[in-house]
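The freezer alarm interrupted the setup, so I double-checked each line after restarting. Inputs confirmed:
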Amino acid sequence: MIAPFVKVQREDFELQTEIDRLTDGRRDIGAVVTFSGLCRDEGGTLGALELEHYPGMAEAEIDRIAKLAIERFELLGLTAIHRYGKIAPGENIVLVIAAAPHRQAAFDGANFVMDFLKTSAPFWKKEHGKDGTQGSWVSAKDADDAARAKWAGNK
Amino acid sequence: MTKLVYFAWVRERIGKAEEEISLPADVVTVGDLLSHLKGLGEEYEAALQFPQAIRVAINMEHAEHDELIAGAREIGLFPPMTGG
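Predicted 3D structure, all chains:
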């Protein structure tokens, strides 16, 4: 089984660089799906998001999820990068790239990783207002748990 | 001694990121740990007011509230995750 490429970092990432890292020299990949999550400005009110993580556990948990996806969807490559620290509107937060022989497995793999990452990787978001006020911690959503649960029954 | 680490609003309410504490012998499960900590002072009570909302990791792996904490080197306490 191939090993996923997993990073938890403060720095930004570059989509094309990461796609190249996954596909360079390969002739067996027929589909690459990339998902990137960006920081929204929430209608112009948000100044920044502060991403806190549990060092060590965050990497281990994403790695565990990534390996599940590779096995389940028979992926040929998987990259998952999650940033931490202060992130301004318009900036990247998370990147998932899934490579497979065909598109459905690549779409499903990326989707699966995001659904599990959101509910079980130890990251927390705090909102900071544009006016400099320190806002509240973002609450977990039931919809995210439901999205994760849908993977339980079907293969 | 057991190392406890706190994150997000649990960390803010308790007022520290980590600490080493010795646990009484009758603290056996994750649930016991949460009720024990809750009795340690106002800041702990504020953080752990609704224990069912607290997620726990033993040695960096998710743990249910009925799990045993025997042999834990590090226990993490935090709110439900909101990354991604």
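Quick read of the result. Chain B has a mean pLDDT of 97.
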